[in-house]
Structures are given as structure tokens and as C-alpha cells.
Amino acid sequence: MRYFVKKLCIMLVTLFVISLVTFWLFHIVPGDPAEMMLGTSASQEQLNNLRKELGLDRPLMVQYVDWVDGALHKDLGKSIQYGKEVTKLLKGKLSVSLILGGMALFLVILIGIPLGVFTAGRKHAFSEQLLNFVNILGISVPGFFLSILLIWVFGLVLHWFTPGRFIPLHRNPAKFFQFMIWPAIAIAIPQTCVLSKYIRTAVIEEVRSDYVRTARSKGSTKNRILYVHVLKNAIVSVVPLIGMIVSGIFSGSIVIEQVFGIPGIGRLLIASVSARDYPIAQTLVMYIAVVILVVNFVVDIVIQILDPRIRISR
Amino acid sequence: MAKAVNTSPAGGMKWGRQPNAAEKIRAEKQNRSKSKASGLSSWVTGEAELKMGFVIVGIVLFLAVLSFFYTPFDVYEMDTSVRSQAPSLQHFFGTDNFGRDVFSRAMVGARFTLLVSVATVILATGISIVLGLVCGYVGGMLDEVVMRVIDAINSFPSILIALVMVSVLNYGKLTIIPALVIMFIPSFTRIVRTGTLQYKNADFVKSNKVFGDSDFRILFVHILPNIYPLLLSSIVIGLSNAILAESSMSYLGLGIQPPIPSWGRMLKEAQDIIFSTPWAALAPGLMIVFTIVGLNCIGEGIRKKYLS
């Protein structure tokens, strides 16, 4: 319980620092929203008036407090580019990105873990070299190139889906998933390679322990030992990686949403960064920060529950 | 019950059935012939990986340097008579919708991508060495604060940091370099710091201290060289990540601006014309994959060779 509180405090402090830095970074940039909205032809007086109206003439600290206060009351300010409320723009986009990320994470875990155990069971074989090479290849292919290849092969040649035609979930769930599986695969492949490599190392470490010998001597089959006894222990050492994988999935989806034309937060983020639409950009950065911090927090707690050894050593 | 267990002495200890004597001899012979062939064993020690990596990276570097003197076709010239042609003997990877040779453009594209990633990694390494050595050696409050910040940066999606930095630093031809440097400082710094902690209290450091060496000399002359092998493999792998990041950024339109070709930019342009000329994506994409595979092989090879 003390650990839980401590971790919670650390998370909140980190969140506070990140929000401070993000806000500060986006406000030291030359060219404030008033200049962006009025263009270069505006007079100094007009600029000053608009700044006053938007509250940009106040000290930075006051603006920050205002922003945080607004964010806590679901008021994130207005987009410069679209002139709409940020909350309205985000509506629907968050869920699309979350579903995409969730699908990718599901694929990573579904394929990465068995693949890692499978390769660990076949040490020093030719298949190890082959898988090693496939692994390097998987990590090396940039997500956007992989996506273009997927669009080309499965979209244009095999016609398994229509490239560029995103169908919202509520209109046709089957078509939605038929489309979304491809970007999910493109995001998942590099992360799967990373995860399976770590699982493999962890399993090879575990196979040397005493309980494996006990299980063998009582006559368990090789697969039962690997997938039931060893995997349970190996996963504990891999759980901390979930945070890293989630952040990798975010990285991937920011770019890959762009390739497949999925209206998620990744696309909005890039559009807002290119157009210097800071109210949206800083909201999205904070949103991603919150997701990642919460995931890391949950991972920390889960490890505590899964592995009593760590609880004792602290 | 007890008897049944005794009849199979140590039978269940090994995976599956125990080999009999003849099989054992055969297996040993096979093992010996394997080690003579040295194909597999050199993979394990990383020799083969190193060789393969150097060959691959060498080819890419050669193509990039060659592009200064010779390209099969002019990279900017638009020839309408050969628009959207499929790969052929004249145009190895086909032509794009303007009739430009894709392979020539991919050769020139290597320059900018390689320049940016090498510059990024050199800068990041320099900063990280100082930061890591000082943090590891001094310790205390400074170390704690720097490590917290580094952890925070590290937990973020790398592309997000680059995006924020690019927008904060204003567009420019080389803005991308400082934006990417920040992505690489955390992992490099952590490696240097861990190494410094490991050698800080080693006997040779202590004896040098007794002889009156300055802290500066101890850090850079005595501790740093010990960290090199570990750092080197991360630098090479960092280089491959830098290429990946640079091409992602130019793919998103936040790196180099047209008409200068860069791999990421070319892929973006290829994607726009994917319905008519899908092969335009092949040359730049394969160049990226090729380079990164090569660098990853070198990195893994160094790690296996010096750290096993």
C-alpha cells in the first residue's frame, strides 16, 4: 500500500512537470496564436486587442494555471486552425486511435509471446539463425514502408481491402475491422520482434532454474514445462517492457495513421504541428503523456502483484 | 511405486529419450564437422554478422559517394516520354510520374539521410559522454535529477519528442538534427553512466587517484576507454534508429523540403502515386531497410564479439 501511494505521487509529480514543460515549450515559440490568426498584415493595435481577448497578455504562469483549470473542466481552448473547440475536434478521434493501438497491442502479445517461447525451445538450431535474421529484418523495416507494401500487396493486388477508404465503426463494424487490421499489423510487427526477443532471453534464463528440473523429473512434457511453468515466470520479467511497447505503438501509430488515412489523433497531431496549432498540439501531447504514465503505473502495480519477490526486496 | 521410479534412473531429467552410445558418437562427429565448417559458430561469435553488416553498409556508402560523381540518370530532369515506367534494364527500379529515374534519386537521397543521422549520433554521443561520466562520477542530487529527466524523456514515444522539437525550433534545413539529438541522449547517457559506476571504484582508478590524477583525467583517460565497446554497439544501433527517425520525419513532411530527394520524402511521393506506379516506393524503401539491417548486424556483431 505504501508502494502504491509512493508510485501514485511520483506519477502525479511527473505529470505536473511534463505539463509545465509542454506548456512552456509551446509558448516560447516565435509567432503566437494572435499573429497566426491575423496574418502578417495586421496592425500592432489589432494584435494587442486580440491578445487581450485571448488572454495572451497575462503572465505565463497565470495562463498555465488557466489552461490546467480548463483542462480539468473539459475546456481545452479553441483550435487556431479550425476555430472550433478542441474537445469537439477530439471527439471520435481518441476512440479510433485507442482501438488501433489496442488491436496492435493485442497482436504483439498474441504473436510475440508464443514466438519467443517457441524460439527459446529450439536453441542452437538452424531455425535460430533464421529467426534471428527475421527479427533483425522486422526491427529494420520502417512502419511507413511496411504500410505502403501492405497497401500495395493486399489492397491493390489482392483486393482484400480498399486502400484509403476508412469506414467508421458505427457504420459498418465488419468493414471497419477489415480495414483496421492492416495498420494494426504494420504497427505490431516491429514491436512483436522486440517482445519475442526479450521473451526468448527470459525463457532461456528460466529454463536453468531448479523448478524446471523438478517438473522434468516428475515427467511433464517439454511443451507443458515451457508454456505453463516457465512462461509464467518469464512473463514477470517482461511485464516492465509493456510500457516501452505501448510507447512504441504510439510512435508507430502517429506515422501509420498518416499512411492509411485514419482519422485518429496521430493525424490530428501532425496536422496541428505542421500548422502550429498549439492548443491542439499541447492537448494531444498531454493526452499521450497521461496514457503512457498510467500504463507505466499499472505495470508497476501489476508486477508487485505478480511477483512477491520484488515486494520483499523493496 | 517406488520401484517404478528407480527403474528409470535420471530418465526424466533430460528432454525426451536418452541417446544410446552409437548415437552419441554420431552426434559428436556431427558437432566436430560443424565446428570445422565454422559457418554456424562464426554466427554465434558475431564474426559473420559483422562481415555481412560491413558489406551491406559499404554498398550503401559506395552508392551515396558515387552519386556525387555519377548517377545513371539526372535526378531533377523530368522526361515525359518515360513517365511511370515499370522496372526494366534501363531503369532498375522504374520511373516516377514525372519520368525521373527512381534508382538515381534513391542514390542521391542517401546523402541527406546519412548526413543527418551521422551528425545526430555524433552530437548525441558527445553530450551523453559528458553527461553520463559526470552523473556517474559525481552522483548524489545531480545524478538523481538528470536520471529522472532522462527516464521521463525515454518513456515518451520518440517520434512525439521529435515532432514537438521540430515545431518549437522552427523550420529550417537542419532543424531536424537538434530535434533528433534529444531522442538519443537518454539511452547513450544511461550506458555511459552505468559504465562509469562500474569502474568508479575499480582498483586502477583508485591507484590513479593516489598518484594525483585530476578527476578530469581519470574520467576521460582511464574510465572512458573501458566503456567504448559497449558504447560503440549502441552508437551503431543508434545510427540505424536515427535513419529510421529521419526518414519518418521527412515522410511526414517535417524534414528536408523538395525538390532535394531524401528517402522518406520519396516514399511520401511514391505513396501519392501508388495506384499508377507502385514500384516507385521500392528503391527508397529497400535502401532504408538495407542500411538499417546492415547497421543492426554490425551493432549485434560488436556486442557479441566484445561482450560475450
Report on the architecture of this protein:
The complex is a heterodimer of chains A (314) and B (308). Chain A is mostly helical and 314 residues long. In chain A, 78% of the residues lie in helices and 0% in strands. Chain A is built from 15 helices and no strands. In chain A, helix 8 packs across helix 12 (241-260) and helix 12 crosses helix 13 (265-274). Chain A is globular, with a radius of gyration of 24 Å. With 308 residues, chain B is an all-alpha fold. Chain B has one domain: MetI-like (MetI-like fold). Helix content of chain B is 72%, strand content 0%. Chain B has 12 helices and no strands. In chain B, helix 6 (140-155) packs across helix 8 and helix 10 runs antiparallel to helix 12 (282-307). Chains A and B meet through helix 1, helix 7, helix 8, helix 10 and helix 12 of A and helix 7, helix 10, helix 11 and helix 12 of B.
Offer a few descriptive terms.
heterodimer, A: 314 residues, mainly alpha, B: mainly alpha, MetI-like fold, 12 helices, 72% helix, globular
In angstroms, what separates the terminal alpha carbons of chain A? 12 Å
- Largest beta-sheet characterization of chain B: none
Secondary structure class of chain A reads mainly alpha
Question: Which consecutive residue ranges of chain B, at least 5 long each, have pLDDT under 50?
Answer: 1-16, 32-38
Write down the oligomeric state. Answer: heterodimer
First-to-last CA distance of chain B = 46 Å
Contiguous helical run count of chain A: 15
Count of helical segments of chain B?
A: 12
Tell me about the biggest sheet of chain A? none
Number of domains of chain B: 1
Rounded radius of gyration of chain A (Å): 24 Å
Shape of chain B: globular
Q: Which chain pair has the greatest contact?
A: A-B, 55 and 44 residues
Give the SSE string of chain B.
HHHHHHHHHHHH
- Give the helix proportion of chain A (percent range): over 70%
The secondary-structure class of chain B comes to mainly alpha
